[in-house]
Amino acid sequence: MQYYVYKNTGRITVYPYLLDVQSDIIGMRNTRVVIPLFPLRNYKGPRADRLTPVVTVEGEEYVVMTHELASIPQRVLGEEVCHLNHQREVVKASIDFLFDGI
What we know:
Pfam families: CcdB. This protein has 102 residues and is mostly beta strands. The chain has one domain (4-100): SH3 type barrels (Roll). Helices cover 13% and strands 37% of the residues. The chain has one helix and seven strands, in the order E-E-E-E-E-E-E-H. A hairpin with an 8-residue loop joins strand 1 (4-8) and strand 2 (17-20). The relative contact order is 0.27.
């Protein structure tokens, strides 16, 4: 579901969560477009706030790694953790910044 956070069951464990950003009206049943979430406490170096906003999942802050946006097999999405509908505009703005630079 769009703007829901899921546990990452894939091989790349550095990203514990995946944020689903694909519209629910898109009928692709086998894949979803996601943005990985990276723990802020492990993030090194400068961060572009508009491209990589920070969100809170289960009481911990995570960097939305918008530049790592990818289509993945739906089976990689683990347990649904929470939704980020309340931060939808921030996430959409980061995607706009990635593609349009605005």
